[in-house]
From TrEMBL:
The chain crosses the membrane at residues 12-34, 40-64, 135-156, 163-181, 201-218, 329-350, 356-379, 391-407, 413-444, 465-487. This is Tripartite tricarboxylate transporter permease. The lineage of its organism: Bacteria, Pseudomonadati, Pseudomonadota, Alphaproteobacteria, Rhodobacterales. Pfam families: TctA. It comes from the Bacteria. The keyword Transmembrane applies. Keywords: Membrane, Transmembrane, Transmembrane helix. Coiled coil: none annotated. Residues 18-440 form the DUF112 domain. It comes from Harenicola maris.
């Protein structure tokens, strides 16, 4: 208990506090820019954390994640332009409310609901993760391999329109994870004589290259412009359109329902924020006393979607911390950040890095508070971000990517890696191949390889010995069936 309190005090140190504040501001600013989102913000911010302590670094990235969650709502509400698919649900009521002369009310509803949903999810994480980690420690290499396989199946099935493309992307990521030194024989693999590749591909360079750079280039190609009527920010407020605390309390059932849906979905790898947002919206429409008002600018609709998609972020850390499995792209980037700072996420983290885990919990709570404070105080300023022309802000972000990678990696090699993967990412976007699956495959690759190697040794190279591991056998057998069910249900929803 003393260690837990000490860890929480570490999170309150000036360095960690300022890191969280900086992360929240970066997340809100980048998230508010149409076309950019929280995963991009994290990818850009990772190089900034290389000289920080592990707690300050992870705290900053958590701040980026939470700030980006709210930042995405700004563009969705003021411009009807969602930066991520889940923000499309927010536009259903957010944009009509803003267009009707109440943009501040819409943004405040999104802010308060986002913080409330995030806080509920974090509380579930703090209460459940240590207990689940104890059970996870009982799983052997065979069971872990089965869990990893079914997790990748879930992610590949739900990321993108094609299962084949999802599996290909995950397999490509896992294959590229083999670059470096063989963990068993110490022999170089696919290094082509480059000493810089002995430690594997630089994850930050790959993530920024495949994720951020192609998206920025595509947005610049589009040359998207917004009408003056849509981008006036808060200038078109009619009278006092503020949301009072009492009015927000009337939305408490909607917020808690959305938080529950988001937490449940976030705890399962691959389901994601989009499903949570639209499920919460559908549930709210079903239980609403005035369902006909949803879609016309109802604060109830905004609260439903923002509480749900924000609740996913905290719950996504449950499989990450207890099993080492990232549930979505944001969690995968956080895994990379953990590894960069010498910390391996998984059940053993609660034994080896107890102070870091509980410091992380405290930093998450702190980040929620800072999103509320910074979001409330800077609402008018952040609303102006959507008015900045794309040809101004995107080159600045691109320059930050290049400089960040060069400085953090200490040379041009990582920059060339970033540019090479930018080309790969560009073609993946054009061919609609899931970048989410690719990144998660790259992050999970070493863990999959290790667990399979250990399983082969444990089973004495006898496939029949897997019968002694019924849990793993059930998971292996269920993987294709689960994938088929998910694809069938998704196709039904898209057809309907």
């Amino acid at each position: 208990m003393d260690m837990i309190f000490a860890a929480m005090l570490d999170a309150l140190s000036l360095t960690t506090f300022l890191s969280v504040v900086l992360g929240v501001m970066i997340g809100i600013v980048i998230g508010a820019v149409p076309g950019l989102n929280a995963p991009m913000a994290i990818a850009v911010a990772i190089p900034l954390t290389f000289t920080m302590t592990p707690l300050a670094a992870i705290g900053m990235l958590v701040g980026v994640m939470k700030g980006g969650g709210f930042g995405g709502a700004i563009g969705a509400i003021l411009l009807n332009t969602p930066g991520e698919p889940h923000s499309a649900a927010t536009t259903l009521d957010g944009y009509p409310l803003a267009k009707g002369g109440k943009p501040r009310r819409a943004l405040q509803t999104a802010l308060y609901s986002s913080v409330a949903g995030d806080s509920c999810s974090d509380l579930v994480l703090i209460l459940l993760a240590p207990t689940l980690a104890v059970f996870a420690l009982r799983a052997g290499p065979v069971e872990l391999a089965a869990i990893l396989v079914i997790s990748l199946t879930l992610i590949a099935s739900l990321s993108g329109r094609s299962l084949a493309k999802g599996i290909f992307a995950a397999a490509l990521g896992a294959f590229l994870a083999t670059v470096g030194v063989d963990p068993e024989t110490a022999a170089p693999r696919f290094t082509f004589g480059q000493v810089e590749l002995f430690d594997g591909l630089p994850l930050a360079a790959v993530a920024i290259g495949v994720l951020a750079v192609p998206e920025i280039i595509l947005r610049l190609q589009e040359g998207r412009r917004y009408s003056a009527d849509a981008s006036r920010g808060l200038a078109n407020s009619e009278g006092d359109d503020r949301l009072t605390f009492g009015e927000f309390l009337t939305l408490r059932r909607t917020v808690f329902r959305g938080a529950g849906i988001g937490t449940a979905i976030g705890a399962l790898p691959g389901l994601g924020t989009t499903l949570a947002a639209f499920l919460s919206y559908a549930a709210t429409k079903r239980f609403s006393a005035a369902p006909e008002k949803l879609g016309t600018g109802a604060t109830e609709g905004i609260a439903a979607t923002e509480s749900a998609n924000s609740a996913v972020s905290g719950a996504n850390l449950i499989p990450l911390l207890t099993l080492g499995i990232p549930g979505n792209l944001t969690a995968a980037l956080l895994v990379g950040a953990f590894l960069i700072h010498g910390v391996t996420p998984g059940p053993l983290i609660f034994q080896r890095d107890t102070s870091l885990v509980y410091g992380l919990f405290a930093a998450m709570i702190m980040a929620n508070v800072m999103v509320l404070i910074i979001g409330s105080l800077g609402l008018r300023v952040f609303a102006l971000i959507v008015k900045v022309p794309p040809f101004v802000i995107y080159p600045i972000v691109l320059l930050l990517c290049v400089v960040g990678i060069y400085v953090s990696q200490g040379g041009f090699f990582a920059v060339w890696v970033m540019l090479a993967f930018a080309v790969l990412g560009f073609f993946m976007l054009k061919l609609e191949i899931s970048i989410v699956c690719f990144i998660i495959g790259l992050v999970l690759g070493p863990m999959i390889e290790l667990s399979i190697r250990q399983s082969v040794i444990l089973l004495s190279r006898n496939p029949a010995a897997i019968l002694d591991h019924p849990f793993a056998l059930i998971l292996f057998a269920a993987s294709p069936f689960v994938a088929w069910l998910l694809i069938r249900d998704r196709n039904r929803l898209s057809d309907g």
